[in-house]
Write a structure and sequence with these properties.
single chain, about 425 residues, alpha/beta, Rossmann fold, GMP Synthetase, Chain A, domain 3, 2 domains, nine-stranded mixed beta sheet, four-stranded antiparallel beta sheet, binds adenosine-5'-diphosphate, binds zinc ion
Length: about 425
């Protein structure tokens, strides 16, 4: 078990002292090592020596994803190339991928924060960690692997895919902790059922699920189908990979490992820092990374932060479930919404399965959104009137909650493509034309 009580239960004053010491160091580091940062600092008329309090962080310029893309591949490393021992690349969900270079020290930090994350989810050395995150350049597989190894848990490096084999291995090896995306966890459950295996009877106890947005109503779906506790984990390649924040067994937000990553929440439009509790874009500064140190990195992820200490004993701040990425926000006839808000409504419909896709089209100059949603197998597809009645009910529900009229189309079970990694929720046909 890795519960680093010294850091995870630190009182805020001591934590802030530590953060400030580390912040000063990292600010000097990027300024002295990277012409890119030096230029940016000078443009903002700020020098690392001016960082005297944590509030002074606000004087520093942001770093954006496009800055990192421009530096591709090695342009933004803050350690000499000779000290880099591993590379990872983001999945490229929103465009050209970005590279992260890790020194030996960085890999140790990663193992530590991932071990803490798994411990936060109740993992001990007695557990069998079934790691179905993809291994390779994607950070999910190896990051989780390093953490599980540090705990001393038995690690199954199964990676994603070959789902039937996953289930057989779970049964034979008695897997207790499942690590994968929430959508893949659901797929594992449905494949088990097809194999005649009751997924609730698998030895799994807890799921550490992340890498994609999942709304609060997805949690009971996964928990009831697999008979597990489903906990959320957050991270991103640019910062380190998984292990930036992790939900504890209270399921009330993800503890952010603030001794390594310094969070802020900003208004994505103005760049102003928001008060605790307000929803905005998460900005992170790495406090201890060597290979890729980042100052005020705009993650693009929308959430809020809560500094109250938690009943689990950790004093680390918690971020709320990620609502989506700034880029994911859809603007349909003037109404702004995130796919996760629609998911939240869809999953409360009894006749529907938690598999859906949002199709965006432009008709007569207007944006139109259609939700394709799978029905449960016990709905007969020849009962047209019944289907129409369900569709109309969901459309009404969405209109009442989100103030937007969209079309809902029920589709047969298993028509929407499954993924072993991140699910593709939005098909934007406007861009294809
Ligand atoms: P990409 O941005 O190309 O998908 P990554 O593979 O590094 O690259 O994924 C990191 C991103 O995945 C985060 O910025 C965030 O948008 C999303 N993500 C990771 N964990 C979660 C989570 N628990 N909930 C919602 N989104 C998440
Ligand atoms: Zn907690």
């Amino acid at each position: 078990m890795i519960w680093n009580k010294e850091y995870e239960c630190m009182n805020r004053e001591n934590l802030q002292d530590l953060q400030l010491r580390r912040l000063k160091k990292v600010t000097h580091r990027v300024f002295e090592r990277l012409p890119f940062y030096k230029r940016k600092f000078e443009k903002n008329r700020v020098h690392p020596d001016q960082i005297k309090s944590l509030e002074d962080l606000q004087k520093l310029p942001f770093t954006s994803k496009s800055d990192l893309r421009e530096g591709y591949p090695f342009g933004l490393f803050t350690a000499p190339l000779g000290e880099i021992v591993e590379f990872h690349i983001s999945s490229g969900t929103t465009g050209k991928p970005v590279v992260n270079g890790y020194t030996r020290g960085d890999i140790q930090i990663w193992a530590e924060v991932m071990a803490r994350a798994l411990t936060c989810a109740g993992t001990t050395s007695k557990d069998v960690v079934h790691n179905a995150y993809g291994y390779g350049l994607f950070t999910g597989g190896l990051g989780t692997h390093y953490g599980a190894q540090l705990i001393g848990a038995k690690t199954i490096p199964i990676s994603g895919g070959q789902t039937k084999r996953q289930i057989t291995i779970m049964q034979d090896f008695k897997s207790t902790v499942l690590t994968c995306t929430p959508s893949y966890a659901l797929h594992i459950a449905e494949v088990a059922e097809e194999m005649g295996v009751n997924p609730r009877n698998l030895p799994l106890r807890v799921g550490v699920l992340g890498a994609e947005t999942w709304s609060e109503s997805m949690r009971p779906e996964i928990e009831s189908r697999l008979g597990i506790d489903a906990l959320d984990i957050y991270g991103l390649t640019e910062i380190i990979g998984p292990g930036v924040a992790q939900e504890c067994e209270r399921k009330e937000g993800m503890h952010l490992f603030e001794d390594h990553f310094l969070p802020e929440i900003i208004d994505p439009k103005t760049g102003n820092v928001l008060e605790a509790g307000q929803e905005g874009e998460l900005v992170l500064t790495t406090l201890t990374r060597e290979g890729t140190s980042l100052v005020r990195y705009r993650t693009g992820d929308i959430t809020h932060i809560d500094y109250q200490s938690c009943e689990c004993g950790r004093t680390l701040a918690r971020i709320g479930k990620i609502k989506g990425r700034v880029d994911d926000m859809l603007i349909i006839r003037g109404v702004n919404l995130f796919p996760s808000q629609i998911e939240n409504i869809l999953l409360q419909i009894d006749e529907a399965e938690p598999h859906y896709q949002l199709i965006l089209e432009r008709r007569k100059g207007l944006d139109e959104l259609t939700v394709e949603l799978e029905t449960s197998p016990h709905i007969f597809f020849d009962e047209v009137r019944k289907l129409e009645e369900i569709e109309a009910r969901i459309e009404r529900e969405i209109e009442e909650t989100l103030g937007l009229r969209i079309r809902v189309r029920l589709v047969e079970p298993r028509t929407i493509e499954r993924s072993a990694g991140k699910a593709k929720r939005v098909i934007d046909k406007r861009k294809l034309k």
